[in-house]
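## retry 2 of 3
previous attempt timed out at serialization; input unchanged, resubmitting
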Amino acid sequence: MIAPKRLAAAVLLLSLVLSSIAILPTDAGAQKKPKPEDVVETSILVYTYGGGRPVLYGIQRNGTLRALIKFFTDEGTREGKSVTKFIRKGKLAEDLMMIDLELPGTRYTIGSDGQETWAIQDGEIHKPTEDAVAAFRSGHEHSYEALLRYKENGSKLEYVGMNKLGTLEMDIIDMISPSGARTRYEISRKSGRIIYANYEDSKSTPVKYRLYFKDFKPVQNTLVPHEIQVFQDGKLIEERRLVESVFNIQLDEKAFKAENANKPPETADRP
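## retry succeeded, writing output
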């Protein structure tokens, strides 16, 4: 069995996510400063193939995501798999979510039923640690999906500048959520895709996270990154590769109760 501290760290790597490479915005100079809302609204159209919010909320109102995961530590590489299930509500904080993580020798599940956050370790329901709860919530609050839902969630946007990596030009947008959490996104000017997301945790000695989204593929008329790399203070700590994504399925809210989640994994729900 893995120690609770290490499991909390695993949840941090799985559900949190962003990193630490310093972002130095390029001065736009004589170029006209774009409105952050215009940049993000364009991205919403890109991620829904022109369908906009009706497609985003009609298709991705719920779903199941299956992934293969690698954790990189000083002790070596650990490989496992995860299943994420969700039901979207009006606000980000009201969403129902559950992440089931399987590693060699252990299984750890953490979820929220809309009222409380719970955890199951190797078949035993227990109250998750504060670090695990914070990591679980932060992973959702700083996700790329959070930016696509900024307006409904009441978040504010700020245009920071432009960043250039080789030939890739990216607009830098800060999103400030109602809780005050700040996430910095880098969006390709050419494709409208969110390439990076960055943030710092709120600990006394802040840790910087950076997410790198790539391998974008269409799933039910929406664009989904199938590979995500997570950096912590500039060091690669996690790699996730989606192997299955299904949306708009039959998913009961009761499934997000701890007592119902404490069952062997089932095959993915189908539309």
